[in-house]
Amino acid sequence: MINESTFELSNVERDKLWEALDHVIYDPYGSIEYSVKLKKIAFSLLPHRVLTILMKQKMSIAPRSYLIFENLPIDRQINTSPNPYNLDASCKSGYISENLIMMFSLLIGEPYSIKFEGEHIVNNLVPLEENKKDYTGLGSEVELDFHIENSALKFITGLNLSPKGILLTGVRNDIDGPLTRISDARLALKLLSEEDLSSLKDNLYIINVPYRWRKNGVTSTSKVPLVQGDGEFPDISAVFYPGMLEPQSKKAKEALDHFYEAIKAVSFGIDVQPGRLLYIDNRMALHSRDKFLGSFDSYENPMRWIQRVFVSADLWNHRYVEQIKERVFDFQC
Predict the structure, then answer these.
(1) In the predicted model, what is the mean pLDDT of residues 31-48?
(2) Residue 328, strand partner residues
(3) Closest Cα partner for 172 from 76, 270, 68, 67?
(4) 189 with 234: CB under 8 angstroms?
(5) Largest CA-CA distance found in the chain, in angstroms, rounded
(6) What is the tally of structural domains in the chain?
(7) Do the Cβ atoms of 318 and 161 come closer than 8 Å?
(8) CA gap 248, 227 in Å, rounded
(9) Average pLDDT, stretch 164-184?
(10) Span 97-101, average pLDDT
(11) What pLDDT, on a 0 to 100 scale, did the predictor assign at position 264?
(12) What is the pLDDT of residues 279-309, one digit of tens each?
């Protein structure tokens, strides 16, 4: 353990894990049989210190806002980056990264995916030219400012469909790529006045639904709070990139501005590289991605390639959502 939230595998632990994961055929839909294989590997080969922190995080009695795992197995050869909606097996030598991020996700919760993120359980975040101005994981030339992933989905259906957490791992490194920034809202809330806290906890904000979710006419929530719970165990619903939040009073706007400044003040940046896995608790930690231009390979494909998995405590709240595959759902507002 490097610090209280960063854990590193030894070279021996890493290499044994690589050998085991290399023999697992990646199932892009996350079947039960596939999940069982990965859990068996995890409990037989992950060191006790890593299993312990993952189990504690899953219990969520005293969760960390983030976890970082270092010196993890990586794919031996990366040939190019894929189209994020269609992973071509020729892009790399195997499926170590997919098996790895799925294994970790299964120890924290239940992994799942939404169809328009890509129809596979592991989402490939590769910047696209046509999406470079989009406020999504496929964008690049705009800052994807601090946010809780899918905040509006805590309120739209009456069932919380926002992920409990997000896992990110690097597949391919872009030396000109962006940092991912993390901010623990618990630290930020300590910097605010009681008046600001009262406003943030009141039904004074409308959260807009991301454009790609808007299919059935629902474009926003009703008036909702951005902070629920106390300062030690808050449930945050803030989104700070453009066009997503509408404060409903002057005091609400002032509280929002102060919260944003506090979020930035306590944040830090991390480069999500190959061999590194980042877990973000989406209930209390906001994340952002810097804007960047990036670099390209000889095939004119972006060098940056990040993989992501959403996790929920369980999939009970998805029972009314159209199930495409075992862990892949099609949801529209």
Answers:
(1) 98
(2) 113, 325
(3) 76
(4) yes
(5) 58
(6) 1
(7) yes
(8) 15
(9) 96
(10) 99
(11) 98
(12) 999 999 999 999 988 888 999 999 999 999 9
Instruction: State CA 113 to chain mean position distance.
Output: 11
Say how many residues make up the chain.
333
Nearest CA among 187, 196, 203, 188 for reference residue 253 = 196
Both tokens of 82, joined, read 């894929």
pLDDT at 63 over 80: yes
The answer as to whether 89 is a domain residue is: yes
The one-letter amino acid code at 148 reads I
Domain span holding position 114: 6-330
Give the confidence band of 1 by pLDDT, cuts at 50, 70, 90.
Answer: very low
When pLDDT is averaged across residues 57-83 and rounded to a whole number, the result is: 95
Residue 263 and residue 148: Cα distance in Å, rounded? 12
* 178 is a domain residue: yes
Contact 233, 283 (CB under 8 A): no
Q: Which residues neighbour 250 within 8 Å (Cβ) at sequence distance 6 or greater? A: none
287 is in an annotated binding site: yes
| Domain harbouring 90, CATH code | 3.60.130.10
Average pLDDT over residues 159-171: 96
Q: Is residue 1 part of a domain?
A: no
179 vs 83, higher pLDDT: 179
Q: Return all residues near 221 (Cβ < 8 A) that are at least 6 apart.
A: 152, 155, 156, 206, 207, 208, 209
Nearest to 116 by CA among 273, 274, 332: 332
β-bridge mates for residue 165, sequence order: 281, 311
